């Protein structure tokens, strides 16, 4: 039994590594195709550099502004990772609360849905006012951006436990806590992983919006500063770093969650 589980974990880790590598490779292929099309459009239509710089100008902007990827990218990455962890933990905890207390699901789920109808730009200035222009407001913004996908996915997974398993648990007089820990949570882990994968893509956007509203560092700050000086190539360079960050973060999530459901690889 132990050998089978170990073998399943090793297979899950290998599959996750292949999946993460495939994701990065596909992103690189798509990126190369876009760069070729981009360069072709610049060559054919010759737009002014302040409107659409060429890929070479963007590369030079990355080289000429090392602080863009040494300082600003690190700042945004820190905000994103902390927000991703906080949003995942809080979202999972709220989903568990809704699973333990079914009445809370009926009360809280509409509130969560309504909260997603509020534009994030509308609350970003308030967060900057309440938490300041440092990292805290950006972490809160990233947390808000990913909170709903994690909560919704995990809560749905907890609610979709096989009825036959629940009937069997009732037959053996299992307590509610045992049902949640031994049946509902393992069954819902693939849904939680799906929510985290979505969150990994949304989190950088939340941090970026927070930096646009007010900050002293980060890729969002670099984009606003470059825009004020009509340095379009630098704006594109910052945008490239954000996209690369999202792809690598998604691949990292695949690797980090590789062994959570070794018994159910098809659900991951």
Q: Tell me the distance between the termini.
A: 22 Å
| Radius of gyration (Å) | 22 Å
CATH topology: MetI-like fold
Overall form: elongated
The largest β sheet comes out as:
none
Order of helices and strands: HHHHHHHHHH
When the domains are counted, the total is: 1
| Portion in beta strands | under 5%
Structural class: mainly alpha
Question: What's the CATH architecture?
Answer: Orthogonal Bundle
Put simply, the count of helices is: 10
Total strand count, please? Answer: 0
DSSP helix fraction: over 70%
Mean of all residue-level pLDDT scores = 83
Polypeptide structure, described:
This protein has 268 residues and is mostly helical. It has one domain (53-252): Orthogonal Bundle (MetI-like fold), CATH 1.10.3720.10. It is 83% helix and 0% strand. It contains 10 helices and no strands. The protein has helices spanning 2-45, 55-64, 67-100, 102-117, 120-131, 135-159, 163-171, 176-213, 219-228, 232-256. The protein is elongated, with a radius of gyration of 22 Å. The protein starts with a helix and ends in a 12-residue tail after the last helix. The model has no long low-confidence stretch (mean pLDDT 83).
Strand-helix topology:
Blueprint: H1 2-45, H2 55-64, H3 67-100, H4 102-117, H5 120-131, H6 135-159, H7 163-171, H8 176-213, H9 219-228, H10 232-256
Helix pairs in contact: 1-10, 2-10, 3-4, 3-6, 3-8, 3-9, 3-10, 5-6, 5-8, 6-8, 8-9, 8-10, 9-10
């Amino acid at each position: 039994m132990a050998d089978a589980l170990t073998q399943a974990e090793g297979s899950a880790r290998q599959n996750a590594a292949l999946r993460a590598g495939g994701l990065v490779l596909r992103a690189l292929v798509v990126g190369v195709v876009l760069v070729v099309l981009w360069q072709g459009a610049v060559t054919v239509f010759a737009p002014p550099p302040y409107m659409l710089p060429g890929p070479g100008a963007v590369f030079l902007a990355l080289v000429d502004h090392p602080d863009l990827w040494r300082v600003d990218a690190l700042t945004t990455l820190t905000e994103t990772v902390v927000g991703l962890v906080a949003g995942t933990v809080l979202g999972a905890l709220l989903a568990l609360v809704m699973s333990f207390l079914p009445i809370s699901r009926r009360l809280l789920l509409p509130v969560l849905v309504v909260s997603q109808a509020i534009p994030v730009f509308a609350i970003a200035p308030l967060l900057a006012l309440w938490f300041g222009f440092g990292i805290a407001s950006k972490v809160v913004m990233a947390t808000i951006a990913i909170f709903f996908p994690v909560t919704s996915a995990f809560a749905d997974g907890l609610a979709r436990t096989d009825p036959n398993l629940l009937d069997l648990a009732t037959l053996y007089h299992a307590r509610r806590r045992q049902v949640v820990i031994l049946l509902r949570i393992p069954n819902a882990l693939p849904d939680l992983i799906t929510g985290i994968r979505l969150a990994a893509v949304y989190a950088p956007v939340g941090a970026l919006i927070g930096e646009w509203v007010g900050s002293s560092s980060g890729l969002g700050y670099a984009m606003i500063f470059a825009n004020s000086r009509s340095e379009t190539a630098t704006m594109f360079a910052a945008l490239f770093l954000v996209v690369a960050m999202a792809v690598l973060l998604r691949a990292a999530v695949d690797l980090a969650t590789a062994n959570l459901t070794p018994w159910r690889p098809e659900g991951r």
